[in-house]
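Closing statement on the nicotinamide-adenine-dinucleotide sub-project.
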Amino acid sequence: MKRKLIILKIAIAGAGAMGGRFGSMLSTTENPVTFIDLWAQHVQAINAHGLLVHTDHGDERVHVPAYLPQDVHGSFDLIVLFTKAMGIAPMLTALKPVITPQTHILVLGNGIGNIETISRFVPKDQIIAGVTVWSAALNGPGEITMKGDGGVTLEALGSNEAPFFKQVVQVLQDAGLKPTASHDVLAAIWRKAALNSVLNTYCTILDCNIGEFGQLPDHNAMIDGVLSEFSQIAAKQHVHFDAADTKQLIVAQFPDDKNGLHYPSMHQDMAKGRKTEIDFLNGYIAKVGAREHIATPINAMLTALVHSKEKLNELQSSREKVATPV
Ligand code: NAD
């Protein structure tokens, strides 16, 4: 029997590496896709030549219209948010004119606290949250690399039985994004955030890749310190969190044929002089710990160290500018 054609008007808000991947894959379905991004050069490049995408099967140009947030008009059924965590509030503020009571927001980015941020803009039953193990890299304006396999785990904060949620799952399925509906997405979000709070943070501070971190004699103590504080804060917030299972997942990344040779995204952000997502990883645990009077000194110290490296980047780049002869 032929399936009823469902058309969703989709916006990708934050069309960097992951937004570019999701937008490209979604554009292969019958649903119209629009890219929205704050980076003017990137928007111009996409509109001039299409988004250049390097895939496992070769290169292609994906022709999807791109806009700066202030230039978008009309409304959308689904906004797929793929800014960094600290970009969510500014992006949604800019998009207020195109968000209606029918607009749903899908958030799959890393970090804890994204749902709270989005709840300031739309009611919970317009939010779909999740995690993804797809990956991608933004090579420069108008160009991404999206290789390898992945999947999406997601849950409607209203109800997974809502017809709109079922449509979204079907559209992701049609795009080849391999969605799985979950009934405990918070557990998945915290598990991924804890993994990121160990591997991204230590590899950034120690300037090493994941395999090298796994060879350090003290890696067990370093992992356990972060995860035990995660356990306490998760318990306080009634989130299901299994430290032993998360540690197993972390250790499974060490071999070279897994992610051992990989430098996590926070390491790459730091190397490029960009702000990191630390406040939504270890920083979230430290912030809630301080508020609830639960000791979280390890996550607090790691957050301070990453912020210090961000600040040093800033100081050193302005010193370089001063030292450059005119
Ligand atoms: P990204 O850095 O590629 O893009 C995020 C935003 O930053 C975009 O709006 C982009 O245009 C802008 N940006 C990037 N470089 C810029 C530059 N040089 N100048 C100006 N603006 C620039 O981020 P991403 O990797 O797509 O991550 C989005 C979310 O998904 C994050 O929460 C991340 O942790 C998560 N995530 C990423 C991956 C991955 O493989 N990249 C995998 C899983 C989850």
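The first strand starts at residue 10 and ends at 13. With this model delivered, the sub-project is considered complete and its resources will be redirected to Aim 3.
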